[in-house]
Amino acid sequence: MSKAQTARLDRLLANMAYGSRREIQQMMDMGWIVLDGVVLRDAAKRVAVTADLSSRMTIQGRPLDPTAPLTLMLHKPLGHVCSHKEDGPRIYDLLPPRWRSREPALSSIGRLDKDTSGLLLITDDGALLHRVISPRHHVAKRYHVTLDRPLEGDEVARFASGTLILEADDKPVMPAVLDVLGTHQAHLTLMEGRYHQVRRMFAAVGNHVTALHRNRIGGLDLPEDLAGGAYRLLTAEDLAAIFAKPPA
Ligand code: URA
Description:
By secondary structure, the protein is of the alpha+beta class. The chain has helices at residues 9-15, 21-29, 53-56, 126-133, 155-160, 197-204, 236-243, and strands at 6-8, 33-35, 38-39, 46-48, 57-59, 62-63, 71-76, 107-108, 116-123, 141-147, 177-180, 185-190, 209-217, 220-221, 231-233.
């Protein structure tokens, strides 16, 4: 069994944005920090950083935030931006304020446009982020697409061909799977994530996307009971589902 990593309490809590190391010591002096029912007084004490720490430690009577690595799924609503540089409400505004200042920082695994809703993963785990976005790992992303004009019939073959070149690109997009759901509706499954890829793929075949929603990453579906703007921590089963083959 591998040994759990340990961390100095003041550093651990400062990285989780509870305050500066000096403030953490003050919180301890006040008796606010309790582990397994025992008030902690020594900021230099090392604790094992295990996933159950948030159920064993309280700060002012409240359970400790989840320790790193922290990964969550968000049902991104329309109108929120993933980038820190764009204007508009940010996806991070939907999370508890303290989570926005954690170290390591949380960032979205890939991005959805401001006008796209659906399943978005957010993590502080760089290796996981890389595994999900890198086309080498074959984690498919499925989008529900609503179109302005009816599908013509040749889009399935054109998207599957691996020869479609998007405006301003020189390399063709990887083969993608289009499942037609109706004259103006389809599921498009991609292995890569270029800028505005779905919208640009339909523009390349003379159509226009009027609504876009991501409903699956790998074998992980956006839960039906997760409302727009809501998030929840990923379970071990959710994590395994990302890398499992999606249901047929
Ligand atoms: N493709 C797009 O065009 N937009 C997204 O948000 C995601 C994929």
